């Protein structure tokens, strides 16, 4: 992920040695008591050589801006860090994706995480600021977009921001929800549910059976361990390539491609090792300032790992956060098969939007994601709705195309010829007369 101010660029990440308070709490628990409710977690405290982060393409990324921009970059870097620490949510997962960028206010109003597709600036998640700063931050962003000739759309925003833009006359669509586990009161950890999963967890950790071990690595808590980071990034890259080969690159919606160690001050990692000391499972915990918790993604296992490793990592994360006193663990997005609410559109336009969304989602296995999340008994009282927001207009084709690129969906499946014929038939006679 690159970073942008207005209009300068090349803001670097904060000093990697800086520790997030949430991450510090988690590490302190493991350091003090490695056995977390019968689940041994080994803290990776090897003092290796301090190194800059490894990019997903295999080279070490530079953390040093040009000399002419050092002072300016440092200020905007601090502004972004502070905004993230206070307002970050699950939807800001793009900070770990090199294809996303950051826009930071020149006047301290906050920041946004975005990607440009189809001449449209797609903002993911709410602006990283307090609600009273929405207007000045978006005005700065409007000026920046005007210089670049970019349209705008938002994806994965909260009800708070959706209401704000609805009052401005924008259209909003409720397309999914965020599933949250409360580790402190979770029924699985209290052994009221998921007994088979817990039994499998014990078998995997039994030295005479599964022989797996669980480890915690926090890049901001120890010297950076480059060899471990290479191994874990490779594990993730191989998993992603195998998934794409098996299911196709467009088989899953809302997929982010991670450069795992690009923000070491905001992440820590649980991983499993086999008897030979090779990593075969990985779970990334990214801190969320707005919620006082973490987002768990990715949570994966290698093709050679025994069954149940990803479940083991979720259980480990829940137990660790429960012991730390953290009650918020986001499992991620759960998109709906239908838009649950369309505001700011009516008639033919709303019908087309719903029909197109339903057609696209039929090709995406969203039911599987919901079933997987339900295994861990999410707390629906903590669940939050997710919205798409776009400025008002007759047809926002450019923004719609860009949103579908971001969501990893095919625009070609949005409308069929029958939809076009129906649209023509339902249009008022006075509109059809000009054709």
UniProtKB/TrEMBL annotation:
Domain Phosphatidylglycerol lysyltransferase C-terminal, chain residue ranges per copy: 81-382
Localisation: Cell membrane
Record's keyword terms, sorted: Cell membrane, Membrane, Transmembrane, Transmembrane helix
InterPro entries referenced in this protein's UniProt entry, alphabetically: LPG_synthase_C, PG_lysyltransferase
Main localization of the protein described in the UniProt heading: membrane
Gene Ontology BP, a term: phospholipid homeostasis
Tagged with keyword Membrane: yes
Pfam name, any one: LPG_synthase_C
ATP-binding listed as a keyword: no
GO cellular component labels: plasma membrane
Membrane topology annotation: Multi-pass membrane protein
Gene Ontology molecular functions: aminoacyltransferase activity
Stretches assigned to coiled coil: none
Protein name per Swiss-Prot or TrEMBL: Phosphatidylglycerol lysyltransferase C-terminal domain-containing protein
Organism: Thelonectria olida
